[in-house]
Automatic annotation (TrEMBL):
Cofactor: Mg(2+)
This protein's encoding gene: nnrD
Protein name: ADP-dependent (S)-NAD(P)H-hydrate dehydratase
Top-level enzyme category: lyase
CDD domains listed in its UniProt record: YXKO-related
This protein's UniProt keywords: ATP-binding, Lyase, NAD, NADP, Nucleotide-binding
Residues engaged in binding AMP: 190-194, 219
Species name: Conchiformibius kuhniae
Top-level taxon: Bacteria
Catalyzed chemical reaction(s): (6S)-NADHX + ADP = AMP + phosphate + NADH + H(+); (6S)-NADPHX + ADP = AMP + phosphate + NADPH + H(+)
Keyword Phosphoprotein: no
UniProt cross-references to NCBIfam families, sorted A to Z: yjeF_cterm
Self-association state and partner proteins as the record states: Homotetramer.
Protein's GO biological process: metabolite repair; nicotinamide nucleotide metabolic process
Entry's family note: Belongs to the NnrD/CARKD family.
Amino acid sequence: MTPFDTETCRRYALQHFPDICRARPADSHKGTFGTAAVLGGSKGMSGAALLAGEAAMYGGCGKVLVGLEHYPPPAHRARLELMIDDAAAVAAADADVWIVGCGLAQTDSAAALLQHVCQRARVLVLDAGALHLLPKHPLPAPSADTVRVLTPHPGEAAKLLKSTPDAIVQNRVWAARELATRHQAWVVLKGHESVIASASGFLRINRNGNAGLATAGSGDVLAGLLGSLLAQGIAVEQAVAAAVWLHGAAAEWLAARQTGPIGLLAGELPVAVRWLRNRLVTVAGNN
Ligand SMILES: NC(=O)C1=CN([C@@H]2O[C@H](COP(=O)(O)OP(=O)(O)OC[C@H]3O[C@@H](n4cnc5c(N)ncnc54)[C@H](OP(=O)(O)O)[C@@H]3O)[C@@H](O)[C@H]2O)[C@@H](O)CC1
Ligand SMILES: Nc1ncnc2c1ncn2[C@@H]1O[C@H](COP(=O)(O)OP(=O)(O)O)[C@@H](O)[C@H]1O
């Protein structure tokens, strides 16, 4: 069994992303921790959007909306806390952060949804299907007061850069930086040792996590967690790297409890993230 050292994690988090280690103010309410909206879940892929929504809730967001392109979904085990509706209705709602693409198909209606949300969103996380739409349906560049984050895996990065997954894996730092510059965005190039880059030159290679994350839906969980931290007001300079690190640490924590790496389920990650976030919390005078 791989050991998991909570105190080492806490020290690392305090050094690199202190804002995720802060205790909640006693007088806080759900509005304090923001609203995230997930848009995705086309036919056969509602699970992806629901996983992102669950991850956003367990990551500490105050309120989470999930808009499904294929609505109503077939019978599904979804958290009752999620506010689930059809994608068009959710796209018209208010949210601090939009997470678009988890389980989103390549249809004209999905492209229209993406364009619509892009005009309204101040903070936009683009994953999976949204990334596949970009080559044919480019978005206007983000304005100075907006934040955009792209979370491609090597297959999605290859499509965006007109390359191949193998070539991307061989040139991961270049690919992440190139995407960040071209899209004026923060980029997480996912995979073993994910690369994080920004248009302004931030670069970090995330070293934690394990092969348990190589399972369907774990990228959807990452997108939801990232949107969650951003909705909670954590600055993008900390939120992106913190989400990738928390996701990896959650997989390590599960593996240490023999819930993986083999057979780890993406849906098991959010509870582990919650456990971890609460152990990272420091109170004044105790750090
Ligand atoms: N429960 C649900 O509803 C779920 C729904 N989901 C939703 O399904 C949709 C399709 O997503 P998807 O990832 O399955 O297919 P797609 O985007 O075509 O990419 C495949 C290509 O990328 C490559 N590739 C990937 N990683 C790589 C790496 N590290 N290193 C190298 N290559 C890598 C891969 O390579 P290969 O496997 O050929 O080696 C292949 O070329 C999406 O919307 C998602 O949200 C899923 O999240 C699952 C749970
Ligand atoms: N071998 C690995 N080591 C560490 N992290 C991994 C590994 N394989 C996958 N991951 C992580 O798991 C997630 C997979 O995301 P993605 O490929 O988008 O899957 P899905 O579309 O099924 O959700 C990414 O965050 C990636 O970095």
